[in-house]
Amino acid sequence: MQKSRLTVYYNGALWIGVYERILDGRLEAGKIIFGPEPKDYEVYQFLLQNWKNLRFSPPVEIEKETESRINPKRMQRMIKKQLEADGTGTGTKSQQALKLQQEQAKAERKHFSREQKEEDRQRQFQLKQQKKKEKHRGR
């Protein structure tokens, strides 16, 4: 069973969307930064055009929820209460998934930076060795 949910909220500076999808009991989340307040049709068009470019977090296990019908008015009250309590409107599991994605991106950047530094050191060393040889030959 597959479920998905898009939550758009204002964090004080920007409008941010959190797209959550649940596949086989595992949650993946992707973050979208809109900037100014998006209209409904802009959000829909953005999803249609940029679906392939969305980067989702690694899957996080979630516990099974029991499917039960909730009165729509009660659901509205629960959502309002959750938004007031959180201030963000995103679930904790999706926040964990986004944090995991952020940490993986940071590790990749760190690894790439380390390789670049090592290549630069090696290049500098080769230049010094070449200079030494040229001086030794009397050039």
Question: What's this, in brief?
Answer:
This protein is of the alpha+beta class.
Q: How would you describe this protein?
A:
The chain is α+β, with helices and mostly antiparallel strands and 139 residues long. It has one domain. The chain contains 3 helices and 4 strands. It has helices spanning 40-50, 72-86, 92-136; strands at 2-10, 15-23, 26-35, 60-61. A 4-stranded antiparallel β-sheet has the order 1-2-3-4.
Q: How do the helices and strands follow one another from N- to C-terminus?
A: EEEHEHH
The figure for the number of domains is 1
User: By helix and strand content, what is the structural category?
Assistant: alpha+beta
Strand line-up of the largest beta sheet? 1-2-3-4
Distance between the termini: 75 Å
Would you count the extended β strands for me? Answer: 4
The residue fraction in helices comes out at 40-55%
Strand content: 15-25%
The gyration radius over C-alpha positions equals 24 Å
Q: Point out poorly predicted stretches.
A: none
Biggest sheet details = 4 strands, antiparallel
Mean pLDDT over all positions: 84
Number of helices: 3
Q: Rough shape?
A: elongated
